[in-house]
Amino acid sequence: MELERVKGNTWVLKSWELIPLYQVDDTRCILLDTGTVDQRAELEAALDQAGLTPVAILGSHAHIDHMGSYGYFQKTRGAVLALTLGEAGQLFSPLGLQLQYYNLSLGAFGQYPELESAPCLPDRIILPQEREVTLCGVTFGLVRTPGHTVDHICVRTPDNVLYVGDAMMTGRVLHRAKFPYAFSMKVYLESLAKLRQESADRFIVAHRGVYREILPFIDLELRFLTQRMEDLLTLVGESTTPKELTEAICRTYQVRTKNPRHLAYFEQASQTYLHYLTDRGDLELVMAEDQLRYRRVNRRRERLTLPPTGRFR
Fold it and tell me: Which Pfam families is this protein grouped with (predicted)?
């Protein structure tokens, strides 16, 4: 990993995703997320080369590509781990992790190397009313952006650099994801609208880049999500089961996988979009032949429109 200064004491470690850090002094730093388990050796090597010891971790959310070494650095380096209440609740036990990764079998928990440093309990739990947190004498601002996960946050460093985590995605990564994951699409969209109100000298997007402005990316993501939901509506026939819809998604977007967990992801991710469309009244969930089925609502409906953002501040 290459260590690159963003502004002041705020840096990023450059890999296939960005791992930000704030340098406390010549030998200590605070990590904002830790990447995956697979990135750990590279992450440690980069920190050692820079002569930096992670004394704290301020996590954006507890997904495996961000929390892969939360518990590891907590145990091996004595790093203070700080997480929001909602993320801490899902990370503290195998049951909490199973709630997040619904296709994870408790009996096979040890077979998933990406969860090797979990479960773990944070040293500092950030409560819902808190809008800043101080770690090792450094105060970070917090922007609450749930939706991608139950209690996701963006973190503002003292250099006025905003780390947005997975509150938004950039273009190439967005399209490669096919169905970007959100725990709640309605709340995720509300957080995107909230994020457009935030100004900063630099923005760090985990997936992926460092930017002076992010409004064009928010515009792009809103258009992309709108199109995906319009596409989903065309895949729902007179009566379509969730399984049939997953098959249709795989055919339409040429998803070819022999990994059951990958297939389960598409099934889980698409459900979030279906729930949003059902709440809007574009779909309804019915019982037919002892099965749950979705069907389009036969009414004159407005084309899906998501909140406009404007391209620049």
Answer: Lactamase_B
> What is the spatial distance between Cα 76 and Cα 6, in angstroms, rounded to a whole number?
28
Amino acid at 281: G
Percent of the chain with pLDDT strictly greater than 70: 91
Q: Tell me the C-alpha distance between 271 and 58, whole Å.
A: 30
pLDDT at residue 111 above 70? no
- 201 vs 264, higher pLDDT: 201
Inter-residue contact 66 to 35 (CB < 8 Å): yes
Rounded to whole angstroms, how far apart are CA atoms 313 and 60? 25
Q: How far apart are CA 312 and CA 213, in angstroms?
A: 7
Beta strand residue intervals within the chain, DSSP E: 2-7, 10-14, 18-23, 28-31, 53-58, 80-84, 124-126, 132-135, 138-144, 153-156, 161-165, 202-205, 209-211, 283-288, 291-296
Instruction: Give the Cα separation of 254 and 138 in Å (integer).
Output: 47
Q: Tens digit of pLDDT for each residue in 216-250?
A: 999 889 888 988 888 888 888 778 888 888 888 88
Domains of the chain: 2-222 (3.60.15.10), 238-296 (no CATH)
Cα dist from 269 to 30, 266, 289, whole Å = 32, 5, 25
Q: Which residues contact 259 (CB under 8 A, 6 or more apart)?
A: none
Q: Which residues contact 234 (CB under 8 A, 6 or more apart)?
A: none
Q: What is the CA radius of gyration of the chain?
A: 20
Q: Look at the alpha carbons of 193, 70, 14, 200 in this order and tell me if their dihedral is positive or negative.
A: positive
Residue 244: phi, psi to the nearest 5? -65, -35
**Residue 213 token pair:** 């402005």
